[in-house]
Amino acid sequence: MSTVNRESYAAAVERLTADTQTATAAQLVTTADEILSVARLLRGQPRLRRALTDPSRAGADRAELFRSLVAGKLGPAAVETVATLANGRFTRPAELLDAVERLGVDTLLASVDKVGELAEVEDELFRFGQVVSGDPELAVTLSDPGAAIDRRVKLVQDLLKGKVRAGTGRLVEVALEGYGGRSFEASLSRLVELTAAKRDHQVAYVTVAKLLDDAEEQRLAAKLSDIYGRQVSLKVDVDPAIIGGVSVRVGPDLYDGTILRRLNEARQAFAK
């Protein structure tokens, strides 16, 4: 994010925080849904994105244009938050969409935090991602941009009904729309990371050949916390194909100590 974009985003966050500081969890959900509805509008209206980021127009004029478009349709917190973004400066119209989406997700996470369910929602998002990746037919169905979003949302709602928290369901729906222009599964992973960051945790994706016991998980988490200087949330996937050892990915960092990697390296060495 450029300095200009960061300043515009920070101003919108400040406005949103001021407008929602006494809001209940339910009110935060309503504001989040409204902000995300603006993101949906911007995603389908490139001309509007360009108009709201047009550098030849004064920021106040862009903000007023947005207010006139949504007058009477959204609550004050959502209107003024996005108007603050429109009043700022963005180097590309797509960056405005990214900022609106992020604010919507941040507000959803604030509602989850309000009811003390961040850790549970983080884990449920990850587990659902595992379910999807383990079912190729489901993965294709949920990721198909040609399929109506309403149909995919209904499918997810049916799959998750009574099994996850409300915040999890809403965030999965955000992922279905391709959060930040990502694929569905990549969107889920990013939302897991944002949920962890909300409670000041770093996500570590761990692949093992068999489940770790509690003591092993605690030792690994402690070691990674020492390396990264913050609490680490382990997301463990069991894959017998790696034979043994462990693979850990934290952000762009990959630590691959699996037997499968060593065997592949040995095969390559013999092939030379």
Automatic annotation (TrEMBL):
Question: In the UniProt record, which is one GO cellular component term?
Answer: plasma membrane
Q: Which GO terms describe its molecular function?
A: proton-transporting ATP synthase activity, rotational mechanism
How does the protein's chain sit in the membrane according to the entry?
A: Peripheral membrane protein
* UniProt cross-references to InterPro entries, sorted A to Z: ATPase_OSCP/dsu (IPR000711)
One Pfam family name is OSCP
Keyword terms of this UniProt record: ATP synthesis, Cell membrane, CF(1), Hydrogen ion transport, Ion transport, Membrane, Transport
Q: Where in the cell is it found?
A: Cell membrane; Membrane
Q: Is Membrane tagged as a keyword?
A: yes
What is the documented function of this protein? Answer: This protein is part of the stalk that links CF(0) to CF(1). It either transmits conformational changes from CF(0) to CF(1) or is implicated in proton conduction.
Family to which the UniProt record says this protein belongs: Belongs to the ATPase delta chain family.
Q: Write the protein's name.
A: ATP synthase subunit delta
Which species? Actinoplanes auranticolor
